[in-house]
Amino acid sequence: MLTKERQAHILKVLRRDHRVVAKVVSQELGLSEDTIRRDLRELASEGLLQRVHGGALPASPAMTDFAGRAQVSPQGKISIAGAAAGLIRSGQVVFLDGGTTAVQLARNLPPGLEATVVTHSPSVAVELVEHRGVEVELIGGRLFKHSVVAVGAVAMEAIARVRADIYFMGVTGIHPQLGLTTGNAEEAAIKRALSQQAAETVVLASREKLGAASPFQIARLEEVDSMVVEAGLPEELIDPYRRLGVTVIVA
């Protein structure tokens, strides 16, 4: 079997089962596991899947840059943002992450809300310039251009000085076993720090992120309180998260 044929088969299995087990595929094709692992490495280098121990998972389409992510599930993100905005109460201190769903959340804050939003995202801060009741604390640092957020030691130091009531976390991958993941180690560290400084962490979970994985873990699912998903998702997609004790809020 030619390399392209093997790899096409692997991608077919991934689409069908939402995972690839190298041992199973090697037995199906009568090939060595080393051959299948080599194919998985090549497919991962092309961004077509995320390698994990023993096989692979779908790669998150949210791994693209900020402009590209804005084109992924736009209506789902708007509905998620609206539901998330309804969780905020006047007088709260809110951590708002970077990302396209967070920008939508900022746009959906009720006009009468009086709160403080702390963010490391210039994009989020700009969205809140005209909101009369929201004070904005912008965390500085080195700009990670891919996601348009501040990272690094300066950002970490600023985060450590804030105690927030609620944190709205953006991720690129959510998986029952692998937890919450993203594509950059520094960005993952910033998200962990924000979560640790908040009384409650809410994950903004558009459909394309569910069951997907990215290279760097942020946290286990048991470490967050809830996740907001769009309406109309199949129950089998959501149930594994409920079984882990995560409150699933359907927008």
From the N-terminal CA to the C-terminal CA, the straight-line distance is 46 Å
Q: Given the structure, what is the number of helices? A: 10
List the uncertain runs. none
- Look at the structure and give the CATH class of the largest domain: Alpha Beta
Largest sheet: 7 strands, parallel
Measured on Cα atoms, how large is the radius of gyration? 19 Å
Residue share in β-strands: 15-25%
Number of domains: 2
According to DSSP, the number of beta strands is 15
Strand order of the largest sheet: 6-5-4-9-12-14-15
Q: Globular, elongated, flat, extended or rod-shaped: what is the shape?
A: elongated
List keywords for this structure.
DeoR/GlpR family DNA-binding transcription regulator; Rossmann fold; 7-stranded parallel sheet; DNA-binding; DNA binding; 10 helices; Arc Repressor Mutant, subunit A; 251 residues; alpha/beta; 37% helix; single chain
